[in-house]
Structures are given as structure tokens and as C-alpha cells.
Amino acid sequence: MDAAGPHPGPEAAGRRRVSWRGLRNRMIGRRGFQSFMARSPLTRWFARGEGARLFDIVAGFVHSQVLLAHVELDLFVICRDAPQRPEALAPRLGLPADRLAALLQAGAALGLMERVGDAFQTGRVGAAVPGVPGLAAMIRHNRILYRDLADPVRLLGAEGGGELARFWPYVFGAGAAADPDTAAAYSELMAETQALVAEDALAMADLEGVRHLMDVGGGTGAFLSAAARAHPGLALTLFDLPAVLAGAGERLARAGLAGRVTLVSGSFRDDPLPGGADAISLVRVLFDHSDPTVTALLARVFAALPPGGRVIVAEPMSGGKRPEPAGDAYFAFYCLAMGTGRVRSAERIGAMLAEAGFERITAPRPRRPYVASVVMGRKPA
Ligand SMILES: C[S@@+](CC[C@H](N)C(=O)[O-])C[C@H]1O[C@@H](n2cnc3c(N)ncnc32)[C@H](O)[C@@H]1O
């Protein structure tokens, strides 16, 4: 890069006024400073904490891959009921015993497994993996994300995203998602992971007094299925692209909801939304799209609602002025790899709702920010 470019060299930086954070950072960054801190009884605890945290970030990718190997080999289920010795398991898994032992030992170090003498049994954290809907599917799916992230700086400069962009064709318009097989592949992953999101969204969303809920971009109807169970009197409409709705009918029939949910196919980019619902939910929809698409969609949502109608947005969000790891690191980079969309803070989504005309905007404290946060608004009565 040109020396006169946007990043001044260390000399130029040295001439600038240095803030207190700058002074702190210069001190921490001095060679030998960490060792000095670790030797002093007064600062040892602090230095160890920061060192361990930094090492966890350095090693994070390896930790994810250790988890992936456990999922791929189904070790959390195989080792659930009783401790297993690597040499007894190895032939069944087609791996050399010492390599399998290394994996199980790594799993034990990360709290996924527990070491019982020379054997290994699933630990508390590992035991949760098969029980969390969609988690194993998401861990497998992350391979694509991690391939894109192998060169994060290149990804930052790649306007169209990475390999992940080809996995989610619908974000580039309805036409890209016309193929039912492609739609089935992404809908399956969405449906598997939606149960968890639906649980949190329903717990946080205020559906008191709502008669008719329309889920826009509702995929195969997992959120509406959960809403139907929680609110037996609620009328339900599912709006999504035609190729996606093809799979939704089947899934809803299996859930015994075939007659209860009205399916409306269309594209919220091109078509007005049907009227009749007094609440519209957008679950994991906005973060796939750019600001102009979201602004246009919210205008359509506003137009489709009656006076007093409410909008419910549920998705992972940025922490905004208080950055938080799930929204601002994981999901933000996921969007970068998709090549479109962005993680927005609850404040930003609230402001977009207000621009669309909504009022009484609320954002309950999220139960699990890594699953979903919720922002709601009302159309003026
Ligand atoms: C990330 S998925 C979320 C699905 C579901 N709400 C969930 O949480 O599992 C986004 C959904 O929006 C739908 N979608 C994307 N573009 C759309 C459009 N232009 N019109 C209607 N639906 C669209 C996709 O088909 C997909 O089902």
C-alpha cells in the first residue's frame, strides 16, 4: 500500500496526540511487559486472565474443528451412556487408536468429553449437542463458512461474498431460488435451526390479543408450528417464495397443521403482502438483506397491517455500542461470507421500524443473544 495511503505508519502515529487507551496499548504491547506482569504478585492474576483469553481466541478455530470431528464421528452419542476406551472404539470408527485418543483428549480438555481413567465419556457440554435442534447440522454447515474465512482479509474485500453466497441463492432474488432442490437444501437447515429461534422469539414476542399472525419469509413453517401450539386460537399465514412453500405444505401436514396454515407464495421484493393479519413476523429475514431491501419490505409490512397491527422482528442482532461476540463476530462474518445483508442492532432495527411508520417500539432483553433478539412495533391505531 502507498505510504501516503489511509493507514499512517508508526512514525506518523507517534506524532499524533495519543489517547489514554493508546498509552495503555503501547505499554501492554511492549516486549517483556506480559512477563513482567505475570511475575508480580499484584498483577499476576490479571495478566493470566488476559493471556488465557487471547490464547482462546488464537485457538478458537482449532476448538471448532475438534467439535466438528466429535459431531462427524457421532462421539457424543456413542460415549453418552458409558465410558469408552479409544482402542475399543477405533476399529469401529476406522481410525488409528492413538489418533482417536488424541481427539477424545482434546474433547475432554474443552469440556465436551470427560476423562474416566483411560476411557472417555460424553461431558455435560457435549451431551447438550444432540439435544439442541439444528446444532449438529449448523456445526457441519459451518465448514463452508470456515472455508470462506480461511483468508478473512480477502473475504472483507470480496463484494460478492464467498462460497456461502452460493448456498443461500434466495438472498439474490426470487429467481435464484426457483430450483426446488436448492430450496429444499437450505430450507432443511433453516427448519432444523428454527425450533430454537422460534422458542426464544415466542417467549419474547407479545402476541397478546393477536388474532391472525402472518410469518413473512417463514421458510417451511417451523415458527408458525410453534406459534400454533402455543396459541391454539390463532389464524396463521405463511408467506415465502414458491419453491420454498413446496416443502412447507409437507412439513405442516406432518405437524398436523395442514388445514390451519394458509400458504401464500410470492416475493416480498416484487409483490405486495396479503392483508388480513394483525401481526406480521419476520424471523431471520432482515439480516439477509441490504438496507434498501429492508426499507422496502418494512413499508410493505406497514401497508399490509391494520391500524394497531404489530410487527415482530426476531433474529441475531449486533450489540451496537456494546459489541457482543455472537452478533458482532459470528453472525457479522456469516453475512460477509454470504455477500449480502448485515447484522443490525436492536436500535438500528427500531429506527428502521420508526422510519416505516411504526411506533411503540420495544426490544425485550434477549434470553440468548446467540439465538435471537426481538424488536417489536405497532402501526398507529
Ligand atoms: C434465513 S431464512 C429464514 C426462514 C425462517 N424464517 C427461519 O427463521 O428459519 C430466510 C427466508 O426468507 C425467504 N425469502 C427470501 N427472499 C424472499 C423473498 N423475496 N420473498 C419471500 N420470501 C423470501 C427465504 O425463502 C427463507 O425462507
Question: Overview of this structure, please?
Answer:
The chain is α/β, with parallel strands linked by helices and 381 residues long. The chain folds into 2 domains: 61-131, Arc Repressor Mutant, subunit A; 136-378, Rossmann fold (3-Layer(aba) Sandwich), CATH 3.40.50.150. The protein is 50% helix and 12% strand. It has helices at residues 10-15, 20-28, 33-39, 44-72, 75-78, 86-93, 97-109, 124-128, 135-148, 152-157, 164-167, 180-204, 222-230, 242-254, 291-304, 325-338, 346-356, and strands at 113-116, 119-122, 212-216, 235-240, 261-265, 279-283, 310-315, 359-362, 373-378. The strands form 2 sheets. The protein has a 7-stranded mixed sheet, with helices on both faces. It has a two-stranded antiparallel ribbon with strand order 1-2. α13 links the parallel β3 (212-216) and β4. α4 (44-72) packs across α7 (97-109), α12 (180-204) crosses α14 and α15 (291-304) crosses α17 (346-356). The longest helix is centred in the N-terminal third of the chain and has 29 residues, at 44-72. 33% of the residues are buried. S-adenosylmethionine (SAM) is lined by residues 170, 174, 177, 190, 194, 197, 217-219, 222-223, 240-241, 244, 267-269, 283-285, 288.
